[in-house]
Specification:
By secondary structure, the protein is an alpha/beta fold. The chain has 12 helices and 9 strands. The protein has a 5-stranded parallel β-sheet. Strands 2-1-3-4 form a 4-stranded parallel β-sheet. Helix 1 crosses helix 5 and helix 5 packs across helix 6.
Length: 319
């Protein structure tokens, strides 16, 4: 990431991933998001991004992420344009670079991009003059999801440092897992990954995590249990024998959860496959599941990120 003055609390031009962010920069984003999360429901739009244009460019279908970025930009007072590849010139054969040049000519202030190929958002960021936010690229990163997960945890537990976080499921294909690992390690949490051998990348330990191939061992003493969706659309080959067998060994139910701490929180980035990676009763547990709160924190986090990438807006924003 490009950076400027060292006294700037967030000196980056783009937000392409969590990797490379310092603990101080992560805390800055979380603190700003926390302040937005505390705003009263129904509050009037702010003037933080008034007169600025945010383009949401999604090459993959999305409900939560695209909608929350749209709400975030509008609550900051920005004009928002939503573009989907299915209805754009890309469908007619336009290349990614041509798309970047076309959008750049429109002079937006921020471009929010989701793309099925890892590295595509980085490429776009090199071809445009505005700030670029990675809304998920292939199996690479999904930085705002990790930030909203961290904010959800911090608001419930009061901290991230020292917590034992078990990330369970399709680690190999999950950009959410990668971004969370980078963030949680930077914040001093103890990260475990739990999955069948076929769904954990080789040499996973180099990411600074403990690897488990058994749910009981991996969840023992965990403060946070973060389930991942099976990314079947990214799988080329057979990674699990069957859905029924996968749920039996790696789907989260109360029997497996029993070895975690009594107050362990249950998380899932969505969309959930109930009965595949998580049992319905567990997902809807009002005392332990924070899945709904994750969705709620999405708008606040994305407001903080859009503000942080616009230095003029940030200097005039309320603390």
């Amino acid at each position: 990431m490009d950076s400027g003055a060292t006294n700037d609390p967030f000196p980056h031009r783009h937000l392409l991933g969590i990797e490379g962010l310092s603990r101080r920069e992560i805390v800055y984003l979380l603190d700003r998001a926390d302040s937005y999360a505390n705003q009263p429901r129904g509050a009037a739009p702010l003037a933080v991004l008034r007169g600025r244009t945010v383009i949401n460019l999604f090459f993959e279908n999305s409900t939560r992420t695209r909608t929350s970025f749209e709400l975030a930009a509008k609550r900051l007072g920005a004009d928002v344009i939503n573009m989907q590849a299915q209805t754009s010139s890309i469908k007619k054969g336009e290349t990614l670079i041509d798309t970047a040049m076309t959008l750049n000519a429109m002079r937006p202030d921020a471009l929010v991009v989701r793309h099925p190929e890892s590295g595509a958002v980085q490429l776009l960021s090199e071809k445009v003059d505005c700030a670029v936010v990675n809304a998920g690229d292939g199996s690479h990163e999904h930085p705002t999801q990790a930030l909203l997960d961290a904010l959800t945890i911090r608001r419930r537990k009061g901290r991230l440092e020292g917590l034992v976080v078990a990330i369970c499921g399709d680690v190999s294909h999950s950009r959410v897992a990668r971004s969370n690992i980078y963030l949680l390690n930077a914040m001093g949490a103890h990260v475990r990954v739990v999955a069948p051998r076929t769904l954990i990348p080789a040499a996973m330990e180099r990411f600074g995590v403990d690897v488990f191939y058994d749910m009981k061992r991996g969840l023992t003493g965990a403060d946070i249990v973060m389930m991942l969706r099976l990314q079947t659309e990214r799988m080329h080959g057979s990674f699990v024998p069957s859905i029924r067998e996968y749920f039996h060994f790696f789907g989260l139910d109360y029997a497996k959860l029993a070895v975690a701490k009594d107050d362990a929180l249950i998380m899932h980035p969505g969309p959930m496959n109930r009965g595949v990676e998580i049992d319905t009763e567990v997902a809807d547990d009002i005392d332990r599941s924070v899945i709904r709160q994750q969705v709620e924190m999405g708008v606040a986090v994305r407001m903080a990120c859009l503000e942080a990438l616009n230095r003029e807006a940030r200097t005039s924003a309320a603390p």
